[in-house]
Amino acid sequence: MAKLHKYKSIVILTGAGISAESGIQTFRDQNGLWENHRLEDVATPEAFKRDPALVHQFYNMRRQQLLSEAIKPNAAHIAIAELQASHPDVFLVTQNIDNLHERAGSSHVHHMHGELLKTSCTACPHIGETLVDLSVDDLCMACGESATTRPHIVWFGEMPIEMEMIFDKLMNCDLFISIGTSGNVYPAAGFVQEARMAGAHTVELNLEPSMGSSAFAEHHHGKATDIVPQYLSKDL
Ligand code: OAD
Question: Is residue 85's pLDDT more than 60?
Fold first, then answer.
């Protein structure tokens, strides 16, 4: 831990790979979610207009899985929470819609692609919470409209959440660590370039080289539960 304390401002980006060993499927690995579902059918605003029941079914299954007893934060989530507890400035931004960072003890988790346990409304600005399945018959608790409640997920073609704050942190960090993401989806895939422009040291921790691997100054490849605790405690 001590070595990372030479950095004043750390930004950590996580993706599906950090939760893989907790039992949550990634998107693009073998047997990943996008191998068995067309993202155009379940993860776009057009899909929700066309067939909201199918979209609800897809996210209801993800939510039920997340809430099952088998799914728990792993050593990588815990190592990040421990770093946050001992370092004054660790900004954690995740593309994941699970709550495993929070359950590991992280506070201020910036969910740029939304959260599975939240709902939003297509008719009003209400954001709610849910531990149960959503359906087309749900009424919005704020405006009372029916069939407008949707999972609070950023779909393809929509604007990720809190981008201004995230870019501000990237432009002012001196260490950027990317964990468990394939680097396929922008804007997150471009964060390494922003951090480099800020003069930050850039580190990739992933099972294998990502799409944008060559942009990183330092790489460690392996399972998140091995390399993340090792890197954050600087055994690597
Ligand atoms: P991907 O499924 O695209 O990539 C997961 C990455 O994690 C891959 O590079 C794997 O090699 C790596 N990985 C797998 N298991 C690992 C392990 N045990 N330890 C370390 N790394 C491991 O997931 P994301 O990059 O997060 O967006 O995907 C980005 C976005 O694309 C998601 O947020 C989602 C998706 O479409 C939306 O749904 C809007």
Answer: yes
For ligand 1, say whether the CB of 32 is within 6 Å of any of its atoms. Answer: yes
Q: How far is CA 111 from CA 85, 115, 162, 169, 219, in A?
A: 19, 7, 8, 15, 24
CATH of 2-24+73-113+160-232, one of 3.20.20.70, 3.40.50.1220, 3.40.50.920, 3.40.50.720: 3.40.50.1220
Q: Out of 3.30.450.40, 3.20.20.140, 3.30.1600.10, 3.30.590.10, select the CATH number for domain 39-69+118-153.
A: 3.30.1600.10
Region 196-205: mean pLDDT is 98
Nearest ligand 1 atom to alpha carbon 113:
39
Average pLDDT over residues 204-231: 97
CA distance 228 to 166: 22
HSE, side-chain direction, 13 A CA sphere, residue 9:
12
| pTM metric for this prediction | 0.96
Q: State the distance from the centre of ligand 1 to the C-alpha of 185, rounded, in angstroms.
A: 10
Q: Whose CA is nearest to atom 26 of ligand 1?
A: 15
Dist. CA 27 → ligand 1 center (Å): 6
